[in-house]
Design brief:
alpha/beta, seven-stranded mixed β-sheet, globular, 755 residues, four-stranded antiparallel β-sheet
Length: 755
Amino acid sequence: MGTNSASASKANPAGGRHAAAPTGGQTWLGRFLSLFTLPEDPASNSLRPLLLVSFVALYMEVVLIRWISTQVGVFAFFQNLALIACFLGFGLGCYRASQKKRSLFDLYALALLIAIIDLPYVPLQRLLAGLSNNLALSPDAALWGFTFSKLGLTNTVLLSSLSLIAVAGFLILVVATMIPLGQWVGFYLDNARNPVTAYSANLLGSLAGIWLFAAAAFLWIPPLYWFAFAFLLFLLVRPKSARVTATVAVFIIASLAFLRLSDSGKLLTIWSPYQKLQAQSAGDLGYNVRVNNVGYMTIANLSPAVAAKHPELATYYESSSYDAPFRFVKGCSRVLIVGAGAGNDAAAALRHCSGQIDAVEIDPAIYHLGKHLHPQHPYLSPRVHVILTDARAFMRNAQGKYDVILFGLLDSHTVLSDFSNMRIDNYVYTEESFDEARRLLAPNGVLILKFEVRAPWTWMGQRFYETLTRVFGTPPITFYARQYGALLPGTVFLESNGPGLWQRATAPKLAALIRDNPPPFSMQSSNLPSPATDNWPYVYHRSHTIPRTYFSVSIILLVLSIFLARTSFEARRRSTWLFFFLGAGFMLLETQLVSRLALFFGSTWLVNCIALSAILLVLVAANVYVERFRPRRLGVYFIILLLSLMANYLFPWESLHFSAHAVGILLSAAYAVSLFQAGVIFTETFRGSEGRSAAFAANIVGAVAGGLMQNLSFILGIRDLLLLAAGFYVLAFVAAKSPSRVEALAPVQDSTTIA
């Protein structure tokens, strides 16, 4: 990339020896560009390019995960599916480290992925939106935005087959995009003079990639610019032998055009740190808001002028899901709204209450829409205090009592993190969460839960009914509020610490409201779904099983993994299994930590970034420890690791009588012990490995297996992932103790460069 006169002559033979000498400016530019050149000489210093490629790899990983999860329905609910595909591609690339490397990542695979997903063809977009449902064939998990229909056996099989092919195709393109990045990382690891220092460079580059994308999320930058930066890196970060051809330019321009086209039109589009939001005017009734291309919420206009123009609103709004619950409340000087959205609930509270209103909303972009677009401007009222944080985290730390606690229409369309299949509102609907809300209620205070319970997922209403009955000791008052204009429908559940609620419910008008609007589910069923808990927070799953959609996509990925890695994965070598088990165990440990920390710090994007950054820094600290102390025996570290895992599994963290943040810090410190031991074991074993790229690849493929094993938490619960992680580390210890790998537990005398 940074060329001298000789290389310039080769690139431009017409100039020959008579070409002008480079000017000082050209020399400075050449030196600058040379910083991005990927050397192909094994004898060159590999730390700078390794740091750079690791940065690009992590950046591309989070870009692909975030983008595809908004554009393709199935990935929105199974976000770690894209993560596992990225891992698989990266691992396959590490296996191919010795092969010819032509570019930073597979531009053509990425361009094809963008073209297919953003192609403005209505039947294709409908197929993408319904992929999750088409793969399920059963309503055992609630996937919002999709409904079941009776298509007949032939059409159902055809549609499911097309969906299987589509998901497999998307996964293959994601894998292909990441393979070259894995090749470069594996190549530089193989040729590093010091493998521990090289691994630290890999971790620090990954850390930089995380925070660059976090900055883009914080600034609400859309995907057009994510990929534009990726393409800029593609043009800058390349080997000297690579040339930018007309074909490359055409593919880049076409990809950016498709991305620009997908966000064009009359809709106001915002890419928040969590999701893609699109607001469309509904005339004088307000606005409709879509999330990830699916209908999500409304901004309702109940101003006097609109009420005069639409008399039916004036007649029916008091029976809406926003106003009807407050008719059961007597006096509300302090109100808490969790999942405040764009302000419809806050506007209703202002109409019926005279006191302070705390409105908790996790997504700043939704608050932005409500603040600027809501016709009644509830968020500008001095009585409304907006808190931008996770609802569960707020309730854990809240002080004082509330006369009304209202759970808004929180139905989530996105997940907690890239390392988990949990949605960001899962912890809000657990039995423990409702118990915390009960603690915050004033005597005779009222808890209002609203949820859009609809077929075929009516069992969700039964779950909420049973959970509230267990928490409060009495069945909730339950009725259905129909839709009126922009006032969305929902099933309303009312509970209270005192008898006043039930006494007021006997008033003729309220009794008629309850009687004439029964919920869309039976409240007498003997086969009620079990409540969601903090250990099993899957409120959108009917039972402790792996939903068919999850099972289908996992099978697709498993088959692809076996097929693509069949010739590279050296199953006969025990060292392969050693690194495989270490990767699987660490993936489960990482998932468990991120999920548990969300309970104490919240499910916000910033908490996830900090958690992942802390994990990487603990691994860097483990590398420093290995470099300085050269641990002679790893057996003791395995023992400490297993003991710490069991201690974290058995210790009742939730019962500690400290603030949520204090418990979270203690939990983080306890998990750091496990992470550090795992880091020491991997780094010292990696330092003594003969083929570093193959070892790294086996570790990544193990992480793929660990990601698929996460689905067992749907059966066992989140905490039991620690037992699975411990099991993998036991297997790793056995593999390390085998005769062919006994050197893994013995001291490594030095590190030499592998040619």
